[in-house]
TrEMBL record:
Keyword RNA-binding annotated: yes
Record keywords, A-Z: Cytoplasm, Exosome, Nucleus, RNA-binding, rRNA processing
Taxonomic superkingdom: Eukaryota
Name listed for the protein in its UniProt record: Ribosomal RNA-processing protein 40
Similarity annotation: Belongs to the RRP40 family.
Location relative to the cell: Cytoplasm; Nucleus, Nucleolus
Ranges where the Exosome complex exonuclease Rrp40 N-terminal domain occurs: 41-79
GO MF, one example: RNA binding
Pfam families for this protein: KH_6 (PF15985), Rrp40_N (PF18311), RRP40_S1 (PF21262)
Native source species: Catenaria anguillulae PL171
Length: 252
């Protein structure tokens, strides 16, 4: 359920670890835009720069999205591997003096600085407690250190939707499903949006936050999203219509 460059018939295609990826390596800081803009190439999960080329680090389907020149590999990987600039949904597990520990489904918890919120200062600390859900961006990802999160847009300093998530319910789906939901023409999202009104935040770590007008509706939409992974598009459309009819009858 992802957009693929229709002018490049070679994508998606299956690759093995070590295979070369026909992407221009990410430029250094000196090559960045003067206003701090993003690099010309965005490397997602499963691909990395190796000296003067880009190579695959795992087996799977190689995708290329020309919007932003993004490259990534989709596979049946169960555990999320953090990658810089990706959005994630985490649960605060520890509150320390200057930072929070956040579970994002990785081998080690991520670190979220108390200063990494819009308007945060030593006097104005974020209202974030153990057990809270946070929608954050991975600022730093390295195999040698814990992932670092931030709840602000690095270009504007504004929250831009990041921060503590109030209410709602979290659906746990595959990493591939989450990546597909990032696209506006995703069939699953379109079908749900046709019958229900709700907010959603998609974390690329296999978690999707759903916030509908009622708690019961949030749970039922989240469960439907989880079921969509084992259904065809037509089956899912019928299931969601039936669910919508049941909710209308229970409210009448």
């Amino acid at each position: 359920m992802t957009d693929v460059d229709q002018q490049q018939p070679d994508f998606p295609r299956f690759v093995f670890p070590g295979d070369a990826v026909p992407a221009i390596p990410e430029p250094s800081d000196a090559d960045m835009d003067v206003d701090g803009g993003p690099p010309a190439v965005i490397l997602g999960p499963g691909v990395r720069r190796d000296v003067d080329q880009v190579v695959a680090t795992k087996a799977g389907m190689l995708y290329h999205n020309p919007e932003g020149n993004k490259w990534w590999i989709d596979s049946d990987q169960k555990r999320y591997t953090p990658s810089a600039n990706e959005n994630v949904i985490g649960v605060v597990t520890h509150r320390l003096a200057e930072m929070f520990r956040v579970d994002i489904g990785t081998a080690h918890p991520a670190v979220l600085s108390a200063m990494a919120f819009e308007g945060a200062s030593k006097r104005n600390r974020p209202n974030c407690n153990v057990g809270d859900l946070v929608y954050a961006r991975i600022a730093v990802a390295s195999k040698d250190m814990d992932p670092e999160l931030e709840c602000v847009n690095p270009r504007t300093g504004k929250s831009s939707g990041y921060g503590v998530l109030k209410g709602g319910f979290v659906a746990k789906v595959s990493l591939k499903t989450c990546r597909g939901l990032m696209y506006t023409n995703n069939p699953t999202a379109k079908i749900l949006g046709k019958y229900f009104t709700f907010e959603q935040a998609v974390g690329q770590n296999g978690r999707v936050w759903i916030n509908a007008p009622t708690a019961v509706m949030s749970v039922r939409i989240a469960r439907a999203l989880e079921l969509s992974q084992s259904m065809t598009e037509d089956e899912f459309a019928r299931h969601v219509k039936q669910l919508s009819d049941e909710i209308k009858q229970s409210n009448s």
